[in-house]
Amino acid sequence: MPDAVVLLSGGLDSCTAAAMIAAEGYALNALTIRYGQVHAREVEAARAVAKALGVRRHTELDLDLRGVAASALTGASAVPKDRPIDASIPSTYVPARNTIFLSLALAWAETLGASDIVIGVNALDYSGYPDCRPEFIEAVERLAALATKAGVEGHALKVSAPLLHLSKAEIITLGTSLGLDYALTHSCYDPTPDGSPCGHCDSCRLRAAGFADAGLPDPLLR
What we know:
The protein has 222 residues and is of the alpha/beta class. It has one domain (3-221): 3-Layer(aba) Sandwich (Rossmann fold). It has helices at residues 12-23, 41-53, 97-112, 134-146, 149-152, 168-177, 202-214; strands at 3-7, 27-34, 57-62, 116-118, 158-160. Helix 1 packs parallel to helix 2, helix 1 crosses helix 6 and helix 6 (168-177) crosses helix 7 (202-214). The protein is globular and about 50 Å long. The model has no long low-confidence stretch (mean pLDDT 95).
């Protein structure tokens, strides 16, 4: 059974991407990063998801980006609520976050001898982040081929983004067909003190629209 390293945030998308790769016969090695995010409730969700998916290994890594990556998600400003969701880059963009995360996943994949790195980015229902685009994933895969021992020796790692061209509704429908329990996930950028979703940030609104379009109830809102 080949190994894959999966970036697991605890959110709906990363959970679904992990389940898809597991269904293809890969052993999951989950990497969760505590980067100074204000919505650290997602780390607890990542633990629950990792347990439910039966990952082979789950590594939680501390890498505080607050000093170098100003974002609403690292506390530099308030998380925007009820804004028009368009192609503009919002204040919740964390500079170079996915570049850094994929670099760490690449290091761990080489160490483990894994063949694939998996990230749950999506280019359709997203908030305008430049590091969620197909061109970015392709560039990272080229980098992996050039900058690693595995790549130089002809065993280049594959960077997989299985949700890249799916709508949020399609992602939810697919995950449901795989038996995922979305009650374990966490999507909100600014949860209440008890961990409940705010319902007004971009992530909450995209999630709500996805469940509505899929004709399914969000188990977090029951």
